[in-house]
Every structure is written in C-alpha cells, then in structure tokens.
Amino acid sequence: MTVTIVGSQLGDEGKGGVVDLFGDRADVVARYQGGDNAGHTVVLGDTEYKLSLVPSGAVRGKVGVLGNGCVVNPETLFSEIDELRERGLEPEVNVAERAHVIMPYHRALDGIEEEAKSDADLDAGTTGKGIGPTYEDKVGRRGIRVGDLLAPDSLERKLSYVLPQKRALCESVYGVEPDRFDDAFDYESLLSLASEYGERFREEGMTVDAGEFLTERIDAGENVMFEGAQGTVIDIDHGDYPYVTSSTPTAGGAAVGTGVGPTVVGRGEVIGVVKAYLTRVGTGQLPTELGSVEGQTPEEGGRPEEANLATYIRDEGGEYGTVTGRPRRVGWLDLPMLRHAARVSGFTGIVIGHVDVLAGLEEVEVGHSYTIDGEELLTLPSTSERWARCEVNYRTFDGWPEADWSEVATEGYDAIPENARSYLEYVSDELGVPIYAVGVGPGREQTVVLRDPFE
Ligand code: GDP
Ligand code: IMO
Ligand code: MG
C-alpha cells in the first residue's frame, strides 16, 4: 500500500519527522516534487539529519526515489549522499530519468527575477535554488532532464538551443551581464559539468523510470511512502499565488510526480502534517501573523504589538529556515487554511506537531474563520488580494503547562495535558479527520502515535 505525507500549511510542518516516524513499515520512500528548496529534519536522539534531496527514509535505510515531478540539482544530491555516507548511512537514491535538472543558469536567473519582481511586490522570497526557472523550462519544453545527462547528443542539442536564450534573457530583459555569474552561462563549462553529473549517475546506476520502478515494488506487495515537500498554501495551483513554489505539494502531485495512477495513491492513506501554529518563510499573506519579519511580512500585515510572543514561539520552536537560515514568520493556527488543505489532498489522517512549543502560554488563539465583505468564510479565498482583506475570527483556548514530553510520549495520548487535548480534538473535529500522531518534540521518540497508517 501507499502512504502520502503532505504539508498542510506553508512548509516546514515537520514532514521529515513524520516520514521517519511511520517509515519503519515502508520499503521505499519517494519524493514527488520540489528539489533542494526543501529542508527536512529527522532527529534521532542527539543526531540530527537535515535532508534536502535525499528522501527522509534514508535515515532508516529505506530505498529512495526522486520522481519525475522533482527538479534535481545533481551537485546538491551528490554532496548530500557523500555527507550521509561519511555519517555512516548508505543512502540508495533512484532518480527518475524524466526529472528535470537544475542548471547553474536556473539558480542565477532565480535571483535575477526575484530582484526584478521586488519593485512590484511580486517576489516570493524564494530559496534561490533555481526551482521556479527550472519548472518554467520544463513547461516551456526546453528543459534538460536527467535522462539527457546520460545521452551526450541530446544534451548538446538541448543545451546549445537553450543557452543563447538564457544569455539573452539575462542581458536584454534584465540588463545583467551573464558572465558575472562565473560559468553559469558558459556552454563549454556547462556541457562538461552536465557530462560529469551524467557519468556519476551512470557509474552508480542511479537512474530509473520512476513509475515502473514503484509499480513493480507495489505489485510485489511492498509499502511505498510518498514524501511531499513544501506545503499546500505554497502549491502552484492551490496556494497563495504568486507567493508560492512552482510545483504540486498536494496529494495529486504524488501520482503525477512519480508515474503511478491516482487510484494507487487514493487507495492508500493521505496524511496531512499540521504544525500547532503557523510559520512562513518568504513573502505573501499570513492573516494570523504575530509580529512581523522585515522584508517578508507584507505592508499592513502582522500584529506588531505581539512581536514578543512571536519571538518567544520562534525561539522555542527553533523557527529559522533549514535551507536559508532566515527567521520564519510566526502566526496562530489558521483553520480556513487547514480546511482547504484537507479538501485539496483528501486527508485520511493528520499528524499535529509542535504541541510542546506552545506549552507555558496562558492562552492559545486559533483563526477559526474569516470575515470578508460582511460574510463569514470557513475556507481560503482564491486570490491573495482577497485573502489580504480577510479579517480573522479568533477562538481562544486555555494554554497548557510544560511537561516532561518524553514521558508523555511514552505514556500515550491521555498523558497530554487536558487543554492541549481539547485543542487537538477541536482541529480534528473541524476537519473531520482523525489524528494519527501528536508531536511533542523533534525526536522520533517524542511522538504520541495513535494509529500507524500502514496498519
Ligand atoms: P519539514 O520541512 O516539514 O520536514 O520540516 P523542517 O524540518 O523544515 O522543520 C520542522 C522543525 O521542527 C525541525 O527542526 C524538526 O526537528 C522540528 N520538529 C518537528 N516536530 C516537532 C515537534 O513536535 N516539536 C518540536 N519542538 N519540534 C519539532
Ligand atoms: P519544506 O519541504 C518552507 C518557499 C520559499 C518561497 C516560496 C518559493 O522544507 O517544507 P522556491 O525556492 O520554492 O521557488 O520559493 O516557497 N519555500 C518553502 N517554505 N518550506 C519549504 O520546504 C519551502 N520551499 C520553498 O520560502 O516563499
Ligand atoms: Mg523544511
């Protein structure tokens, strides 16, 4: 069977930890979208792994797949594999021949376009990894795929077509000299770099037809976990467009992004990962935002009078970007966002984490609904502009005390402080989706498991 893990908010919900938690029963863990914009954390005792391309199942020695829906920076992938090997793991990563390759010029253009967009407040605050430009080329049918790295003729043909366009874009549209970016726009260097990547993919026998690979495994009775990256509200279709990433983190992406049928994904479980409050890295709306972060919070956004509370939660939760180190914007949980996420992905279960981070607060607020133009709204409006006009209707919950969370995790659900349980049950009831686990700390052991989706 399959289990799909989806971020239900804005990324960084704790998906890596959930993949690790339920990953013991999985045979294969497959990423289906995104690239090294992801930063997934797995904590095992004192050991922490931060993974951006290697699927999080690697920590448990599970077979990994990067599906056709991913964009792959081979440089990052190989250095991550090498680092994990140095740390004693043996990551097996099978990369789809249909996945697109992030080239150095994509990374350069990511930064150039963000800069240009910022004058019109259209910059998303990207991770700068070249994600958007690579997906653009994919859809524009001028991308370079992993399969091309293994086929010198097609690599040369495609690169020699696309590179003059990229140089012209840089020079004539953005007025930036391409040779400023080392060899990012240099044909010979790119060709030799791409050939080196291809050589390593070939030597290590890493490339596959992802759909075929996964289907054979599933037919043989193995369990497959699909590891979503990013989150619902930064989904290219279902998110806060244009302040989004360029892929489909929601559950539909698991089928399209790996080459198995939607019925295969739909027969399995779809688990939404929920952080007990909100964080956002980058620009865009966040109606329940506390405080604000310069350069990211939109004008008129945030509640500056709650800056201390935001700092408290940010520090307690270690809310600084895994990939970029940026302070994450912080806000209260937002139910319209979660209702939207549960519908788009068809959650069969949720995992709510970071419950320990809110412990010790006197009160905890939740955005229950919005009001816009005199009407109550229970889910998200379709445009960022309308979302910006929504007023939040809050519900206030009594806070819960600090606890020995490791002990709570050992004792089980009833050991979670009563007020926290009321909060958790409110979320589950509103979504009509059962809770499969509650995170009370970053470690694998600091989790209360109510139900294993593979059972
Ligand atoms: P991902 O991108 O969704 O995999 O999440 P990240 O790894 O970027 O960010 C989640 C952070 O929260 C990581 O540092 C995790 O170790 C940590 N974390 C996950 N679950 C919990 C939890 O229940 N409590 C606390 N305190 N930290 C958690
Ligand atoms: P994980 O998998 C949080 C955000 C960026 C930016 C927008 C577009 O760790 O949850 P991109 O570089 O993708 O073009 O940036 O999306 N973003 C993330 N935010 N977690 C992530 O991944 C993210 N990946 C991208 O901050 O606002
Ligand atoms: Mg992350």
Task: Briefly characterize the structure.
The chain has 455 residues and is α/β, with parallel strands linked by helices.
Description:
By secondary structure, this protein is an alpha/beta fold. 34% of the residues lie in helices and 20% in strands. The strands form 5 sheets. It has a 10-stranded mixed β-sheet, sandwiched between helices. Strands 15, 17, 18 and 19 form a 4-stranded mixed β-sheet that branches. A 3-stranded antiparallel β-sheet has the order 12-14-13, with helices on one face. Helix 3 (104-118) crosses helix 4 and helix 6 packs across helix 7. The model has no long low-confidence stretch (mean pLDDT 97). The structure holds guanosine-5'-diphosphate, 6-O-phosphoryl inosine monophosphate and magnesium ion (MG).
Cα gyration radius (Å): 22 Å
Low-confidence stretches: none
Secondary structure class reads alpha/beta
- What is the CATH topology of the largest domain? Adenylosuccinate Synthetase, Chain A, domain 3
Small molecules (ligands, ions, cofactors) in the structure: guanosine-5'-diphosphate, 6-O-phosphoryl inosine monophosphate, magnesium ion
| CATH architecture group name of the largest domain | Alpha-Beta Complex
**Strand percent estimate:** 15-25%
Number of domains: 3
CATH superfamily of the largest domain: Adenylosuccinate Synthetase, subunit A, domain 3
- Biggest sheet: strands, sense, closure? 10 strands, mixed
The number of helices is 15
Helix content: 25-40%
Residue-averaged pLDDT, rounded?
Answer: 97
Number of DSSP E strands:
21
C-alpha geometry = globular
Give the neighbour order of strands across the main sheet: 9-7-5-2-10-1-11-16-20-21
Cα separation of the termini: 10 Å
CATH classification, class level of the largest domain: Alpha Beta
